[in-house]
Amino acid sequence: MPTFPGQIDSKLPHVGTTIFTVMSRLALEHNAINLSQGFPDFDCTKELRDLFTQAVNSGLNQYPPMAGIPILRERIAEKMRRLYAIEYDPEHEITVVPGATYGIFTAVATFIRPGDEVILFEPAYDCYQPAVDTAGGKPVYVPLEAPDYHVDWRKVHEAITPRTRMVILNTPHNPTASVLSAEDMRMLEGLLRGTDIVVVSDEVYEHIVFDGHAHQSATRFPGLAERTLFVSSFGKTFSVTGWKMGYVCAPRELTTEFRKVHQFNAFVCNAPVQYAFAEYMKDPTPYLELASFYQAKRDLFRQGIAASRFRLMPSRGTFFQCVGYEAITDERDTDLAVRLTRERGVASIPVSVFYHEPRYDKVLRFCFAKSDETLQRGAEILCKI
Ligand SMILES: Cc1ncc(COP(=O)(O)O)c(C=O)c1O
């Protein structure tokens, strides 16, 4: 095997294998119930699979248009209109991309120059900081406030400087399962008024908001919509995380710049998958029913561990449930997550890894996008701990 003879000045010196890969691998090794990584352990609908194979068998297998096939972009525009009462022009304001992660990375690469500051809320989904670091930007962290992980907008106000170029939002929020309220959005709207700051709003769990609440998309608020790149993921919405496809909606000026970078990165994304989604989205039922589908799973899992020694934290959206374990052990969450996988056969994610400097608050995250049987078996084990 050849080896590189020179020096490598890593742009991401602190990045190793993601915790999701580590925990899923460990779960597999120990034949553990995997409640760690955020993907469903059940399949998507047969209808969606059939639409994909039909597209493949119809020969829709060559490069599609750079921004995505027009009919899919039209369906996305309809969905944004229906849900958030906002008009996006499919031609100039909607771009289909190979996954939300890619959409976020490309948005950061498009707008962030060396030295630009990007406000991130911590704990933060793990792809934001590496995107900012790769672009030479400076992450500026605002902590979400325990115990319900709300935003203290005074701290955001203090974090904004003349160098602030971007705010990355995430609602519903991974890992904490908190959601931003309309009041939160109005606070941000007020803080950003009159600035050139761009918002990247990671709303991949937009359809998974519980207890009858409406999802407060940044796109509902005119003072945010005008500066927001809204990012969503078909993978989360239609239970096909392995198909890696999402979309970005943004005002024309922002989309124009975004597409300049996208054009020389992925350029296009999987054609037959796009045709399948376009057909599937004619009926809004699958995404409109997603919240009640996952709420039933959330409730099943919560009931299952209600009698355990874990402290249930609120789960207002996403398919995650965080729990405190201060009544059980003083171990670090990273150690406990590994031990529970090895010794008890149930895998989780330690929340400390979502901080740039680990904060050991004794919180684990469980994913309940799993079959009811898996959730029940997982809960039984957790009740014995
Ligand atoms: C908050 C958040 N954003 C983005 C993603 C990635 O979405 P995609 O698979 O479409 O890249 C995830 C996946 O877990 C996520 O939880």
Strand content: 5-15%
Low-confidence stretches: none
Note the run of SSEs as H and E.
HEHHEHEHEHEHEHEHEHHHHEEHEEEH
- Straight-line distance between termini: 47 Å
Oligomer: single chain
Which geometry do the CA atoms define?
globular
In helices, the fraction of residues equals 25-40%
State Rg: 21 Å
Mean pLDDT: 97
Supply the number of helical segments: 15
Cross-sheet strand order for the largest sheet: 2-8-7-6-5-3-4
Can you describe this structure?
The protein is α/β, with parallel strands linked by helices. The protein is 39% helix and 15% strand. The chain has helices at residues 19-29, 46-57, 70-84, 100-111, 128-134, 153-159, 182-192, 222-225, 234-237, 252-263, 271-280, 285-288, 290-305, 333-344, 372-383, and strands at 33-34, 94-97, 117-122, 138-143, 164-170, 198-202, 228-233, 246-249, 311-312, 320-324, 346-347, 349-350, 363-367. The strands form three sheets. The chain has a seven-stranded mixed beta sheet with strand order 2-8-7-6-5-3-4, with helices on both faces. The chain has a four-stranded antiparallel beta sheet with strand order 9-10-13-12. The radius of gyration is 21 Å and the shape is globular. The protein starts with 18 loop residues before the first helix and ends with a helix. The mean pLDDT is 97. Bound molecules: pyridoxal-5'-phosphate. Pyridoxal-5'-phosphate is lined by residues 38, 99-101, 125, 170, 174, 202, 204, 233, 235, 241, 244, 246.
